[in-house]
Design brief:
The complex is a heterotetramer, with 2 copies of chain A (142 residues) and 2 copies of chain B (386 residues). Chain A has 142 residues and is mostly beta strands. Chain A has 2 domains: 48 residues; 83 residues, OB fold (Dihydrolipoamide Acetyltransferase, E2P). In chain A, 8% of the residues lie in helices and 39% in strands. In chain A, strand 1 and strand 2 form a beta hairpin. Chain B has 2 domains: 137 residues, Thiolase/Chalcone synthase (Peroxisomal Thiolase, Chain A, domain 1), CATH 3.40.47; 233 residues, 3-Layer(aba) Sandwich (Peroxisomal Thiolase, Chain A, domain 1), CATH 3.40.47.10. Chains B and C meet through helix 3, strand 3, helix 4, strand 8 and helix 11 of B and helix 2, helix 3, strand 3, helix 4 and strand 8 of C. Bound molecules: zinc ion (ZN) (2 copies). The site of one zinc ion has 8 residues of chain A, from loops. The site of one zinc ion (ZN) has 8 residues of chain A, from loops.
């Protein structure tokens, strides 16, 4: 992508902004200005939930141009806590450990580098949520 | 203005790696065959279906370019693009050009030349059917999107991957009898499962390979067709419908709504039901897409497609002969040409010219052509004219 | 099936550098205006005219994408490409879709988003209208091809460059009154001649600049149009013709045969002669193309176009008001959108809504839209309905 | 262009092969298989004349991608001795010296380099014909 195109999409990629239909409640990401479900033009920007669970996934072994250096990598379909389905790379997780149901949270990472323009694109990927076990947490006061 | 539109000539090149042939030579070769069959020298309009020539071949303006190549400077000519449904979308426009009375004889050719590029460039070009800033950006491929569909389908309907891939096995069995097929040899379920993983669970032998190819049709009003040839094939319906581009923002990830909408309208226009269809061509970028197509075209209930396929009901001699000359998997999938190949092959079936792959008494054929993951579907219903 | 097709709504964005708007937002903005004017919520089909989204925006499948963006999933939608005549070629398909009876209400939008790319990438993308392996390969640009035409024209007809560039000066004068124009200010012949050389003899102020923009029309049968609005504009003719792609392999380098062929057919269909035309839009990537267009559309004899222009006969208040809202030079040239902008502007003129640029009593308008160096021409003739 | 595309066009670019219509005599480069002038399919490959004269030219100062390093450069419309018009870069000639009527001959040169694929493309350009003055030729025997 070009520099202006990258800049234009920042809110939607860095802050997970989507739009919500005020008539039927549907969420859209990328943002829609007209609701394709009910036809309403009454939509507002809304930040999606940053956490969710993995519904299904695949491991990309033959990537498209721009992604060759990352292979093999996991791409998952994630159901966010607000019910929205989103497609994203799953990182900080071995291929052997990934499984449907895994709890995930959004994180911001390097997506790809355009060798020609020198632009480095950043955006959302998802990583497993680390559940702290508060019982076992080391207590520095003790 | 004409009541019906007929196919009076068809032609195609072999699908495969044509190192020695350019985009324009492929188009010329297929088109000359179609024109010769129709015994026509010049047409009023040329429609070119192509997806990726800007990205892979650094060439646009294919309407004028192909008119020039065909020695038909002056004629009306444009390119139509609807991702890998570009070919069938071009036929749809040609159909309307005749229906409108603006053209009497039309040449439609689908052409794609992918083997000029590296595989990663081809994957990249393919993904331009999806939303560039979001879906493409995740690094997923078409096979990857099909993989997630496959996983969801397996979970919801208790299907196994080894059952689903029977769709690919059927394609290969049929391609063995097609001299124009990219992979004219049979394979087994085991061979699919042993092939390298591309996008888990999808294996290499359950995907399409980069290919070059061109296919062409000559269309005219039925009244003219009856004079030109003994076996005109009538286009009873030509319908294009769209859906949300991102498959995960549709009502159901496992329903191709564009296929349902286009098929229902096409059945109504043709005055038939799915039971009347004798031979079918569907758009199977992987087996899962073939299974979903059979369900959403109304041939089998949602969730039962995998069983229908595994039980062999799509074989040449069975209930619903499907992809009778190899389909996307084994005839091959030169994107913008594929939708036209489907109609060339159905025409052969309806004329009784499909050789060893002939479906006895085929009278009505249906082709389903898809752009991307179902954002576009074009359905054509053809009938042999008596 | 309808006898006549009418325009019942038009809309456009400003032409320019829309850093903050994507391809889909531009399309949405223009289309919503057109739909609101027509008082229509949903259409049967969407045609998208676009040249370079694959090359510049890494996005294809614009038919389905724009249907989705417009909240109209399900409708028939494709992209039509004929280089920088893509917009008018899309209108031509939409016209036939209504004529054929397959669609009752159609949205046509031309859209281009070029400022996302570097200037050298834009030049490269532009050249995809020409033959990739030969003409492009010489390193020439569109301005360079226009430069050689200019040189040949000057030699053959004893014209001077300072006479020819009056075409650009006329465009700028008209654009000054158009809030949607890219360059809404007047310039002088001297300013053109003093601007930097781009491809000798052509100067920067005699060429178009990379631009973003979208324009849209809503079409329906005239019978419906009469109910929907007070001032329907009728499409009396919609004709597309091609020519050899390489301008140096045509019978005459200085004759746009595709324009001649399309115009002759259009005049015949509309039942008019060039004398009946009140207002004209032509495709001037440089002044020379505007001059050739006036000649080949039959408004002035071959070789006399430069004089006609230099004498001011294309001014708003003169014989043949041409490019009344700025033309390619000053309204701007967002390739695939340009052909639709022309028809939006003619509609304003025929409805009497062109403000300070209104041509008194304009009843008949003609638009000539060109792909590349004339390999494609689309001619539309519009008439105000009474 | 890609490697196979470059290889495919070699005869037409390295040997200036075109096609000639046996019915109406028209020459085509790039080659046509059907004559767009008369509709005949009777065409044969024919090598174009290697010499000709400059009809018109331009100087490209804002080049497309791939040609930036060469600017400014001359592109000319050349009428070959067989009557064929061809468009090509004019090399070995200063911008100040180029003029219509100049006698030219084909030469084979580097056209452009594709940074991504590493392919270097070669093909025809034209250069001024150097007219030997035989009278003045130094005689090594003397
Ligand atoms: Zn809604
Ligand atoms: Zn000839």
């Amino acid at each position: 992508m070009s520099a202006p195109a990258v800049r234009r999409e920042i809110p939607y990629r860095y802050r997970l902004m989507g739009t919500k239909c005020l008539n039927c409640g549907a969420l859209f990401h990328p943002p829609q200005r007209i609701c394709p479900k009910c036809g309403s033009k009454d939509l507002v920007e809304e930040e999606l939930a940053w956490r969710g669970r993995l519904v299904a996934y695949t491991v990309i072994r033959r990537p498209p141009k721009g992604y060759e250096d990352y292979k093999p990598y996991i791409v998952g379909l994630i159901e966010l806590k607000d019910g929205k389905l989103i497609l994203a790379q799953i990182v900080d997780c071995d291929i052997e450990e990934v499984r449907p149901g895994l709890k995930l949270e959004a994180t911001f990472r390097r997506i790809r580098e355009d060798g020609k323009s020198g632009i480095i694109e950043y955006g959302y990927k998802f990583r497993p949520v680390i559940e702290w076990n508060w019982q076992k947490k080391p207590n520095p006061e003790k | 203005m004409s009541s019906k539109v007929a196919i009076v000539g068809v032609g195609c090149t072999k699908v495969g790696e044509h190192w020695d042939k350019s985009l324009r030579q492929l188009f010329l070769e297929a088109s000359l065959k179609a024109l010769e069959e129709a015994d026509v020298d010049r047409v009023d309009a040329i429609y070119v279906g192509n997806m990726a020539s800007a990205t892979i071949n650094f060439q646009q303006h294919l309407g004028a370019l192909m008119a020039d190549v065909m020695g038909m400077r002056g004629v009306d000519a444009v390119r139509v693009e609807a991702a890998d449904a570009s070919g069938s979308a071009a036929v749809h426009q040609a159909y309307m050009a005749i229906k409108s009375g603006q053209a009497q004889t039309v040449l439609v050719g689908g052409v794609e030349k992918l083997t000029d590029a590296r595989p990663a460039d081809v994957e990249y070009a393919a993904m331009m059917s999806e939303r560039s800033e979001y879906v493409v950006y995740s690094g997923i491929t078409i096979a990857g999107l099909n993989a997630i569909q496959t996983q969801l389908y397996m979970d919801r309907f208790n299907a196994r991957y080894e059952d689903i891939v029977n769709f690919a096995v059927n394609d290969h069995r049929n391609a063995a009898g097609n001299p124009y097929a990219q992979f004219p040899f049979p394979i087994t379920v085991e061979r699919v499962l042993e092939s390298p993983p591309v996008a888990d669970p999808i294996r290499l032998f359950d995907t399409t390979a980069p290919a070059d190819g061109a296919a062409a049709l000559v269309l005219c009003p039925l009244e003219t067709a009856k004079k030109l040839c003994d076996t005109p094939v009538v286009i009873e319906a030509s319908v294009l419908a769209t859906d949300g581009v991102n498959p995960y923002e549709r009502d159901d990830v496992l329903t191709l709504t564009s296929t349902r909408v286009a098929a229902e309208r096409a059945y109504r226009t043709a005055g038939i039901t799915p039971r009347d269809v004798d031979v079918v061509e569907v758009h199977n970028t992987s087996s899962i897409m073939g299974v979903l197509a059979l369900e959403d075209l109304g041939f089998v209930e949602k969730g039962q497609g995998w069983r229908f396929v595994a039980e062999g009901q799509i074989a040449l001699n069975a209930d619903l002969p499907t992809n009778t000359l190899g389909g996307l998997k084994a005839r091959g999938h030169p994107w913008g040409a594929t939708g036209v190949y489907q109609l060339v092959e159905l025409t052969w079936q309806l004329r009784g010219e499909a050789g060893g792959n002939q479906v006895d008494g085929a009278e009505i054929g249906l082709a389903q052509s898809v752009g991307g993951l179902g954002a576009t579907t074009v359905v054509h219903i053809l009938r042999r004219w008596h």
